Amino acid sequence: MSANKAPLVLTNGVVRSAVMHGRAAKAVRQEACGLIFGAHDVGTRYVPMNNIAERPALNYAMSLREVGQAVQISREHGEDLVAVVHSHPTSDALPSEADEAVDDHRP
Question: Which of 16, 37, 38, 105 could cysteine-pair with 44, CB 3.0–4.6 Å?
């Protein structure tokens, strides 16, 4: 699958929710991770996910069951998954080498 390079537009509510989630995770020295739902290239809803990584201070992983449930609920509301996001609590908000290897966090 090729990466989607179109600009992603986020509502203020999505940005606020993601930032609040990131700050809460940083307070316990973990990476936050979540999903953004909406339509096309517009994110209208942020869903925080539990970071189940073995070392959540250094990376993130999401439960496939939890992701599947969130995607199913979004489809029932006519939404699509438009982005996967995570924070970097101990470094600048720049892509890591692992992030670069993925190239894009958009489905």
Answer: 38
